[in-house]
Design a protein that fits this description.
CATH class of chain B: Alpha Beta
Shape of chain A: globular
Strand content of chain A: 15-25%
Number of strands of chain A: 11
Shape of chain B: elongated
Number of helices of chain A: 5
CATH topology of chain A: Rossmann fold
CATH architecture of chain B: 2-Layer Sandwich
CATH architecture of chain A: 3-Layer(aba) Sandwich
Number of domains of chain B: 1
Distance between the termini of chain B: 5 Å
Helix content of chain A: 10-25%
CATH superfamily of chain A: Class I glutamine amidotransferase (GATase) domain
Largest interface: A-B, 20 and 13 residues
Helix content of chain B: 25-40%
Strand content of chain B: 25-35%
Oligomer: heterodimer
Largest sheet of chain A: 9 strands, mixed
Number of domains of chain A: 1
Order of helices and strands of chain A: EHEEHEHEEEEHEEEH
Number of helices of chain B: 2
């Protein structure tokens, strides 16, 4: 099992993602955005940050990086691809995930721990949790409002592709628990085949209890279990 | 040759910047303004062969995101 963390100019969560995976015992490499091969990686992380300074739109320019055709091919062939924050924006721009992320409802950059309800545990990304589990994971974004047209939203719900919703401490999905104005409190979605996952919260920043929460481990442990690897304790 | 591309959020998409601008304009003393949308203008200078179809392709694929934005292209001599 091999994992890779992509690096774009402006990525700034690449080292956190690399460390989180390494701590779980994973063999992980960095891949520069100008490379054209993902080198047989089974798990690809598109990390957070501000690729290309967020010029034009978040993720709009990274989408055309030389590495992206290889990421698309890998996704088509079943590799696990996770886009975190700016990575989520990039995957939407690249049409690997439906919808788009827009400015937060209140225009502020928000950096805080939020609570997320796991909506579907039968996926490569959430099998270590149970449906209804509440995870406490930080967000840090200015453009995290998930939006999609009505038909897309209906498909996402029908196919159970919505994996995480912002919720309160008791797991209730309420308007008050929605930090950024995302449609239906959506914090993370996967594609129809479930191997591509995008989320605005940062699980890689919540993998060590000494940093305030280790709830993010559930995401990576799930992915490793799906790939037949037991995470290091 | 110059091309100008105007990109605006779709009517159906919440535009928090537009709402903030509208509120500020109303507060400034112009309650007649009922809505505002904030987008961007991209000017392209062109030299050499190109077709309007190519420009539209760039507008669709890169300069705007059709999920959330509409664009208007005008080419000036």
């Amino acid at each position: 099992m091999k994992a890779a963390v992509l690096r774009f100019p402006g990525s700034n969560c690449d080292q956190d993602a690399h460390l989180a995976l390494r701590e779980l015992g994973v063999d992980v490499d960095y891949i520069w955005h100008k490379d054209t091969s993902v080198a047989g990686s089974d798990l690809i992380v598109v990390p957070g940050g501000f690729s290309y300074g967020d010029y034009l739109r978040c993720g709009a320019i990274a989408r055309f990086s030389p590495i992206m055709p290889a990421v698309k091919d890998a996704a088509k062939n079943g590799a696990l691809v996770i886009g975190i924050c700016n990575g989520f924006q990039i995957l939407c721009e690249a049409h690997l995930l439906p919808g788009a992320l827009i400015r937060n409802r209140d225009l502020h950059f928000i950096c805080e721990h939020v609570r997320l309800r796991v909506e579907n545990y039968e996926t490569p990304w959430t099998n270590d949790a149970v449906t209804g589990t509440v995870l406490r994971i930080p967000i840090a974004h200015g453009e995290g409002g998930y939006t999609a047209d009505a038909a897309t939203l209906k498909d996402l719900n029908r196919n159970r592709q919505i994996l995480l919703r912002y919720c309160d401490a008791r797991g209730a999905v309420t308007p008050e628990a929605n930090p950024n104005g995302s449609l239906e409190n959506i914090a993370g979605i996967c594609n129809a085949t479930r191997n591509v996952f995008g989320l605005m919260p940062h699980p890689e920043r919540a993998c060590d209890a000494r940093l305030g929460s280790a709830d993010g481990r559930a995401i990576f442990v799930s992915a490793l279990a799906h790939l037949g690897v037991k995470a290091a304790a | 040759m110059k091309a100008k591309v105007i990109v605006l959020p779709k009517q159906s998409i919440l535009d928090p910047q537009g709402v903030a601008v509208r509120d500020a304009v109303q507060h400034h003393g112009l309650p007649a303004v009922k809505s505002a949308r904030v987008g961007k203008v991209i000017e392209l200078e062109l030299d050499g062969a190109f077709s309007e179809d190519q420009l539209h392709e760039v507008c669709r694929d890169l300069l705007s995101n059709p999920v959330i934005e509409d664009y208007h292209l005008s080419v000036e001599n």
